[in-house]
């Protein structure tokens, strides 16, 4: 009796799509996938843009559509698919945190197209597209590392020169010392770095006027790369 009820339950919730419906689902997923493709292309600069990853987003949308077309409302197939996917492990590193959002976007569109729900992914993709374009203009907060190496005897002069040059806004992060040498690493924000030096000098000129300063390096640091 129990087996009979389960069999009837699975059959009642199982829906087989016709060939025209399947073709329509794939066409809509292809159009929305191209929409996502363009969104990813326009919201990423050349420095972080990956053509292969972008192409995989289009493929992921259609694959999700295919999977949902097979599953439909069939509970047995859906449970089996969850079990099969649970053993998959992905090792590809995500360069940009926004790439994760694009992956979920593609999966959501594919799921909607697979169950013949086209209005929600169409409107949702339009809204997300605009949001992604706006967020694509957000830049990382650039920071600069000022690295100074010199003789230990010049320590006080170096600290005083940096203090005066940046009005105390340069954050000392590292101070390495030996009997003969000393190394400083200061962190500068973009505003602090752009501060004008007196008499038109730059920080290199100010530091190299100190006898005993050997090297002055400036390194730009951000989260990864500019978006």
What does this structure look like?
The protein folds into two domains: about 1-135, no CATH class; about 145-220, Alpha-Beta Plaits, CATH 3.30.70. It is built from nine helices and four strands. The protein has helices at about 1-10, 20-45, 50-70, 75-85, 100-115, 120-135, 155-165, 190-195, 205-210; strands at about 145-150, 170-175, 180-190, 215-220. The protein has a four-stranded antiparallel beta sheet with strand order 2-3-1-4. The longest helix has 25 residues, at about 20-45. The radius of gyration is 29 Å and the shape is elongated.
Task: Write the topology of this structure.
Blueprint: H1 2-12, H2 19-43, H3 51-71, H4 75-85, H5 98-114, H6 119-135, E1 143-151, H7 155-165, E2 171-177, E3 181-189, H8 190-193, H9 203-208, E4 213-221
Antiparallel strand pairs: 1-3, 1-4, 2-3
């Amino acid at each position: 009796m129990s087996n009979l009820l389960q069999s009837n339950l699975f059959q009642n919730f199982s829906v087989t799509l016709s060939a025209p419906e399947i073709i329509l689902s794939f066409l809509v997923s292809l159009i929305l996938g191209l929409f996502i493709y363009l969104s990813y292309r326009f919201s990423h600069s050349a420095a972080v843009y990956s053509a292969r990853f972008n192409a995989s987003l289009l493929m992921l949308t259609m694959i999700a559509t295919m999977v949902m077309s097979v599953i439909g409302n069939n509970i047995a197939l859906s449970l089996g698919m969850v079990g099969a996917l649970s053993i998959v492990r992905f090792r590809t590193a995500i360069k940009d945190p926004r790439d994760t959002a694009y992956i979920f976007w593609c999966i959501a569109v594919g799921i909607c197209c697979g169950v013949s729900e086209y209005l929600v992914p169409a409107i949702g993709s339009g809204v997300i597209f605009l949001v992604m374009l706006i967020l694509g203009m957000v830049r990382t907060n650039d920071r600069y590392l000022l690295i100074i190496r010199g003789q230990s005897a010049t320590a006080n002069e170096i600290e005083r020169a940096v203090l005066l040059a940046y009005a105390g806004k340069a954050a000392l992060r590292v101070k390495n010392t030996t009997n003969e040498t000393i190394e400083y690493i200061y962190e500068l924000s973009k505003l602090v770095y752009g501060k004008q030096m007196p008499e038109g000098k730059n920080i290199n000129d100010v530091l190299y006027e100190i006898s005993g300063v050997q090297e002055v390096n400036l390194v730009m640091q951000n989260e990864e790369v500019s978006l």
